Amino acid sequence: MDYCLLLPFTLGISLLWPCFMATEISQTEEVKHPADSHLRVKRGWMWNQFFVPEEMNKTNYHIGQLRSDLDNGNNSFQYKLLGAGAGSIFVIDERTGDIFAVQKLDREERSLYTLRAQVIDSTTGRAVEPESEFVIRVSDINDNEPKFLDEPYEAIVPEMSPEGTLVIQVTANDADDPSSGNNARLLYSLLQGQPYFSIEPTTGIIRTSSKMDRELQDEYWVIIQAKDMLGQPGGLSGTTSVLIKLSDVNDNKPIFKESFYRLTVSEAAPTGTSIGKIMAYDNDIGENAEMDYSIEDDSQTFDIITNNETQEGIVILKKKVDFEHQNDYRIRANVKNRHVDKQLLKYHVEASSTLIKVQVEDEDEPPVFLLPYYLFEVFEGRPHGSFVGTVSATDPDQRNSPIRYSITRSKMFSIDDNGTITTTNALDREISAWYNLSITATEKYNVQQISAVPVYVQVLNINDHAPEFSEYYDTYVCENADPGQVIQTISAVDRDESIEDHHFYFNLSVEDTKNSSFIIIDNQDNTAVILTNRTGFSLQEEPVFYISVLIADNGSPSLTSTNTLTIHVCDCDDYGSTQTCRNKDRMLSMGFRTEVVLAILISIMLIFGFIFLILGLKQRRKQTLFPAKSEDFGENIFRYDDEGGGEEDTEAFDVVELRSSALMRERKVQRTATAEIRRLYRQSLQVGPDSAIFRKFILEKLEEANTDPCAPPFDSLQTYAFEGTGSLAGSLSSLGSAASDQEEYYDYLNELGPRFKRLACMFGSATQSYN
């Protein structure tokens, strides 16, 4: 290989390298390497460089040679190589100065190595020249394919987008040197995705090339290739995939699945009842598929609402239907999208519609009255069975069931099967002027179908009540009264109702007119005054006067009543006032009332006293029967007036105590009653502590029990540590019996005294009858 000699730049050291790899460089000029690298003068040193191609497979690839001008070829100089990679990547022949690369170089890992060279005299070991620095550059070859940076790629574009719509931009990177030819210059191309997409070769921008419908295909896989060397043959390439999804636009209107729907509804269904569902289908999704249903011509009977979850149309009953009135309906329903953009209105010009037929089902309905309520009038005083009015109800169903009528809780009226209401008692307007009735109608074929209607009966007035005094009059006249003196003003009332205002006429009876000491004057305003008709009245001779006042009304026919006015003669004071007589009567009345109240109070006190006396006597009798009840014997009294449950009953009493060894009745030979009583008596004295005080106490109690004819026939008075088994009569209970009743002998009961006579009669007679 030919070498070019570089002129010595420091003490005559020269660099030799193949002529096609390096050029001579002066200290004042700036040149470009064929690979566009630059050499510059730095601090007076000449920057020298070797070029080594990367990925060289040759071992000990010769890079160049270092040679000193002082080297005369006698091998007295020794060349050394220092710096990064010296000895491992690069080696130098110490005698000749040749530099070799012993490893494969990769520019993408490291593109430049800075080394130092030194020449040493082998005889003296001293440096002949100062160190010199040079550079070894790794030149690029096209050994890296393009790689995409942001994989995986995914993009979304609206469906029906116009041609040229930007979708996404992909970018690849080439690790080769961009300044070394076209190694890193890329071109993009589309391997898969035509004819829907296109890509710009230099930028990697993907655009749509035709309109796409999401409802036909909602996503596309596009394969992109990036190739270096500007796509020329021999260039390296890389590929990537792009998932392009089409987003939905509202380009489809909803369409009914069925052109005809058949629904049914019961005539008994209440308003708001859901009677069926209809369904339209929209190829769009999400908000674009939301729809609204409606009924043409604004039906007054039905309506449709939308279920926002399922997008179904729910047909509901807007007004109740009647099978007898109309048994089927035909309605037309429309559907349209809820959200439509203006630019997409061309897809929604005509709404989809469907026909719905609603069949009304007949139901057994209750009777229907012809009127919502009835108002009747009847005169008072009409006889039993008088006609009041007629109500009428019909069965709205086709079978037209007969109707039975009844009145709820009424003693004054009755109704027959024809709906005729009659009276059952005479009506009196003054007692009740109105009657509110409830008439029920029941189908005979189905008694469960019942309806009711209110009936109002007004009792009309007839003039059946004569007028009478409006109040009780307490009238007095002085003994020395003058003729024509007014002693009382009277008025009247009438319980009848009058169409016109009441007008009353006052007169005295014929007898009083001829013989009365008083006269009456009608004031023509429903009042009249009583006046004296003579002089002088005697309290002793005639203390009270009774006059009959006739009062007539203006009814038709007119009624007249006779009212008695009592006038008392009064010993008036000097001023002619009757107040003193009125006060005396009032005091007498109050005194009488006080006496009545006192009598009632005394009677109540006597009754309560009698009750307390009876209770006290009963309490005292109880204390006599049980004088030692307050003492604590340590045990309760066993009363055997309860039959109990037999030997199996262990709940009422302490069976252990009743069945103690001392009380248990064993089968014994029959003894005389006297011997038995003595034996039990001795046994009772032996129970308990041996103390004279206790024995005395027991004897006293036994004596009291034997001598008291009012004491109930207890079996025994049991007290722990006192009586024990000392009952003279023994136990009458069946608890703990060792033998059956057939083996018992009750003859000894006759010897126990008068208290046991009844028991002796009962059990003795039973035993004899049994024998």
From TrEMBL:
Gene3D superfamilies: Cadherins (2.60.40.60), TCF3-CBD (Catenin binding domain) (4.10.900.10)
TM annotation in the entry: 596-617
SUPFAM superfamilies according to UniProt: Cadherin-like (SSF49313)
Organism: Lynx canadensis
Stretches assigned to the Cadherin domain: 68-148, 149-256, 257-369, 370-469, 469-580
Record-given protein name: Cadherin 19
Membrane topology: Single-pass type I membrane protein
CDD domains: Cadherin_repeat (cd11304)
Localization in the cell: Cell membrane
Domain of life assignment: Eukaryota
Keywords: Calcium, Cell adhesion, Cell membrane, Glycoprotein, Membrane, Metal-binding, Repeat, Signal, Transmembrane, Transmembrane helix
Keyword Manganese: no
